[in-house]
Structures are given as C-alpha cells and as structure tokens.
Design a protein that fits this description.
By secondary structure, the chain is α+β, with helices and mostly antiparallel strands. It is built from one helix and five strands. A hairpin with a 2-residue loop joins strand 4 and strand 5. The termini are far apart.
Length: 103
C-alpha cells in the first residue's frame, strides 16, 4: 500500500538553538533549521543534524527520539520507535502490577 507523501505544516518554526553554539575555536556554528511535519497520522519535529540528516522527535510523545536521512525514513523510524516505546510501557506496567499483586 502506498502511503501519502508527508505534508510540511510549518517550516522554520524557529531557527533553532536559543543561544549560539560554538566550536573549540569560539566561532559560532551555523543555525540549524527545525521543521514540523505530518503525514496525516503522525506529527514529527525534524531538526537538521550537524552531520547531515535529521534528529526526529514528536511533540505528542517527548520520549520518542530517533534519527533519519530523509522525511520518508523519519516517519518509518518514528513508527518503529513508537512501537518499541509502547511495548516497553506495557512491559513496565505489567511488572508494576505484578509487584503490587505480590505485596
């Protein structure tokens, strides 16, 4: 099944980094751009990474963090990360309930 292409909802929400970062020589590094995008099912924040590609996060789930080279890969990696987070949360909840039942 072919998924719809992501739509950029808002570009350059902010120039990124409230204070300029500097390298060892004290020269400010160029500001990196941040984008908020959606494919209609998931909203992601993409921050350009210094080494290329994007650091991917979600405004709806602060624990979701991953990296990607393209927008398509960002959605794929974010979905995988969301599934792993969900499984982890279910496992933790199960262990807490088992501990409560044992008390």
């Amino acid at each position: 099944m072919h998924s719809p292409k992501p739509v950029v909802l808002a570009c350059e929400l902010f120039s990124c980094f409230l204070t300029p970062r500097s390298d060892n020589k004290g020269m400010a590094k160029p500001k990196l751009k941040t984008y908020t995008i959606s494919d209609g099912k998931m909203v992601l924040t993409l921050e350009q990474a210094e080494e290329g590609g994007f650091v991917v996060s979600s405004p709806t789930d602060p624990e979701l963090m991953t990296q990607a080279e393209t927008i398509e890969e960002a959605f794929e990696m974010a979905r995988d990360a969301a599934k792993a987070l969900q499984k982890s949360r279910v496992d933790i909840l199960r262990k807490v309930r088992e501990m409560q039942a044992a008390s």
